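G.,

No rush on this.
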Amino acid sequence: MTIDKSWTTIRRRGSSNEFWNGLQHFLQMAKPFVNDRGFIKCPCRRCLNNASHQFEDLESHVFRNGFMFGYNQWIHHGEPATANAGTTVVGPSGGIHERDEMFDVLDDIISEDADEDAVGGPSSYDQYDDLFVALQSELYPGVSSFSSLNFLVKLMHLKVLNKWTNKSFDELLKLLKLAFPKIDLVESHYEAKKLMTKMGLGYSSIHVCKNDCALFWKENSLKDTCPVCSESRSKLQSGKRSGKNVPHKVLRYFPVGPRLKRLFATSKTAKLMRWHSTGKSKDNDVMRHPVDGKSWQEFDKRHPQFAGDVRNVRLGLAADGFNPFGNMSLSYSMWPVVLTTYNLPPWICMKAEYLMLSLLIPGPQSPGKDMDVFLRPLIDELKELWVHGLDTRDAASENGVFRMRAVLLCTVNDFLARSNLSGWSGQGYRACPTCNEDTPSMRVIGKTAFFGHRRFLPTNHHWQSNLQFDGRTERKRPPRRFSTTDILEQLRRVKTGIPGKHPNYGGVKRKRGDDELNWRKKSIFYELPYWATIELKHNLDVMHIEKNVCDSLLGTLLADPHKSKDTDNARRDLAKLGIRHELHLFKDGNKLMKPAADYTFLKQTDESFVVSSDQ
């Protein structure tokens, strides 16, 4: 006998006789299957068959919270296990429709909300009514393979993959409406975005001062002028007496917590979120993932309560600027801030679909020293995730809900972005953040040069006494390692600057005192309770270093006039240092001659080198 299960998807249960009658039939069917204590599994959207209740309570639970999605074969409540109800749903008219995959997606989303809302009354799910209307609507009369919602999600996915403009998407919708007048589809991209936002795929728009002084957020959300420089929040609309206020800049913030919860909503990714504990390398001499590093292990020792639950999330942060317009003649720098989840295995955590965009910092200028202004929403959420955590449903655990906490383990950037994030300037005589105040440097023609690299060699190495490096023997030991206490003491001496780029406020250049060393600010990351205890806070992006070193090395070997580091000024520096006399510039009549160096290729060698590289 075919069972009518269409009532399980009805949203407005309080006014539906169909839902009530279907629930009564379900209870009659399930009653013989209570256990000897009178308990039975509850299929409501909060319990999800993970909890058992007295049979008398089953009716109120399902009516209040709704019937869980995905439970199409009622094996715990009297339906034979051999019935193939997992792929079809029988409608009230007796017709059979293919199960839409979006049911499972909405089930995950609603289950998250059910975990947060213990009351779970019907009004708690009103925000999903439009989604369920689209889910229960046929795309076109007679087409049961696609619901209106499923088709729209796939269409939006194609838009992203193929970089369609909003205008082209609107024109495609118009064409579909024209060609298929009865198609059930939204009218515009704007309406599609509003519907997708209800699935948890939205973001917050936060207005920013035109000079990057402050965000109009939280305590400043109702202000019309900047609390620092008093500039107007909105652009002046010339020739218009009234209308919508247009902000100078808008920061897009994508909340992290809901997306972390989504990783635990399906059993596949929920299991992968434990990989750092169950799948890491057993070889102590091999590092293939941050879990194998000293920083991770030291953090676990200092925070055993956090490390005690392997489901707690470890994050990494990367930020860099790019020109979104692709026109390099137009100076514009937009900065995305991306998070990666290090709980996942190395072959997954760096895939695009697992990277989470958290902030989109607007241009046209780089945020520079004002990076902390834009990071404020993210830091506040990270503090909440560390201190309080989020109740999260774990699809791979029988315990159901757990309190998920998260930690930011490190940042990964190029040297410029590292300077903006850490607060230690990457310019000047003390540019090295590791050597700190002990950075060995000297001024050469047009730039600062850094030397003393022989200090890292063994004490008996023959290069230690070689005079060709800088004209001196090397007797110094490697630079000291600065402790957390040392760094915090340095930061205590740093004066708090005014944020922003207004010429009368934050834009005024301030000369650093000698006791401030190369610190420009105390980074906002130190507001995180655990940040000072992390061994390796900021990592350099190897890709940039490899590319730049390789370009410089090959350019010098091939004597490329644009990329070689063997310049005329470099030869003059050798003369000033009194080393490598055979490479000094000399005059031949009125011409300035540059002797060929042993490390540069001859023309014939250049050609053979290029040919062998191509092969």
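When you get to it, here's the other one too:
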Amino acid sequence: MDSFASNGSQVLDPDDPTVTGERKNTLDDPEDVERACLKQMNYKARRKLQQRVRIEFNITSVINRQKFLMRLAKALMTFGAPSHRIESQLLSAARILEVDAEFIHIPGVIICSFGDQETKTSEMHFVKCGGRLALGSLHEVHQIYRQVVHDEISARKATVKLEALIAAKPLYGSFTRCTLAFCLSALICVLAFGGSFVDMWIAGAGATFLCLMQICVATKSQLYANVFEISVTIVISFAARGLSSIRSQIFCYTAISSAGIVGILPGYLILSSSLELASKNIVCGSVKMVYALIYTLFLGFGLQIGSDLYLLFDQGARRDLAALAARMMSQATITGTFISDNGTFANINHGEPLEGTFTFVSGAPYTREHIIDGCYRPPTFPWYLQPFPWWTQFIIVPIFSIMSSLANLQPFWTVELVVMVVISCVSYAANKVANHFIFNRSDVVSAIGAFAVGLLGNIYSRKMGGTAFTSMVTGVLFLVPSGLSQAGGITAQGNGIDIGGAMIAVTIGITVGLFMSQALVYMFGSRKNAAIFSF
């Protein structure tokens, strides 16, 4: 179905031979060519040898090319390639290798069908694997793919490189991943959710606990992996509610709970699903979108359960929260009977009792004093309990961008890392400026930030020959927690439906911004540069 959608919309990869005009001159290795030269020998002298070599050469050559296509499909899924481009990349490689092939991509599986025009037969292969986003490995896969479609290496050598890349160990170990999780949650607590110097350490500790459970328990126990997200969010929310209930009010529940689970937010999953829906890949896009929404509801459910579980043990905190909610209500609705006990309302209903539903509106609504980003911050608090000054963003944002790129398995000493950090900083700056002028519209604000990211990423790919996708991922993922903070935070007053709606609004804005930037950049230039979808 997805292949039909892709062919119908004529989505071509930028390296597709129908766009670049490349033709494969060396379909096979030099060793195979040497063996093929045996076909030029004396037929009468080596008739049997010639027949054997011809059959062996032709079969081996086709098998090598088909094997490369299947390894390429596995590598793209393993390292988190943008799923709406996988089919077009595989079709481009099949064309340049002169292999009669069709591909269908559904979540977690790629179906490869290879046809043989001589025997009028076909064979089908299922490539099934899971994976996560790995920017460094994905960049290497893209370079191998470009070398093949531009006729620089043969299919056999490319297959060996892909197999070595898939079998390689993760770039960073468990300790490094936990350290990165701590730094990311601590920094995003300050940047997006109004946390203080004290809050950021608690949020970082929660993220470290989450990462440890994910690495040490969830990956080894399939039974626990099914409830991993709910159990971890319950623990983090329970601890955050307990700390925020301390009488001194030095901890902020919203900042700690939101930043603590930012590492398992399905931001990239929802982003890829919205990109697929916008690319008319209905099957993959709708399946991933529904899964991401259910996953988000699990997170919201876990946060609410953790908070209510603590309030079940601390009745004083429950009463305080109920009294605060009642004071903050601008109106109250009461159903019953109204009876006048004096002559003030004698003219109403002829002095008879009134029955029904009555709404009382407060003439002087409760003022939210000293509330900053959902956290209580009176001016009497010391500096370590106040939000960070605005100028600290110039230091924190680049550090967060570096940490986010490393957490997505990007090698440190690379030029691409510098490009990622620059684009990510521009993304945050555009988001903040847009939010200053546009209030309570997280989708529009995210669209403006994504437009800036897409503009820089596509210009970098077109003018400097870089990979647009890997250079833009960090900046795009930065917009998800930033946009959610403008939508009221991840906790969203404890309603999981609101969290899902907030994430959809943010990712739809990101999708629109990315596509608008691509249309603007690739509107001009030759046909080679007019191919769409670099993200």
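The longest strand covers residues 109-116. Residues 1-10, 52-59, 527-533 have pLDDT under 50 and may be disordered.

Enjoy the weekend,
O.
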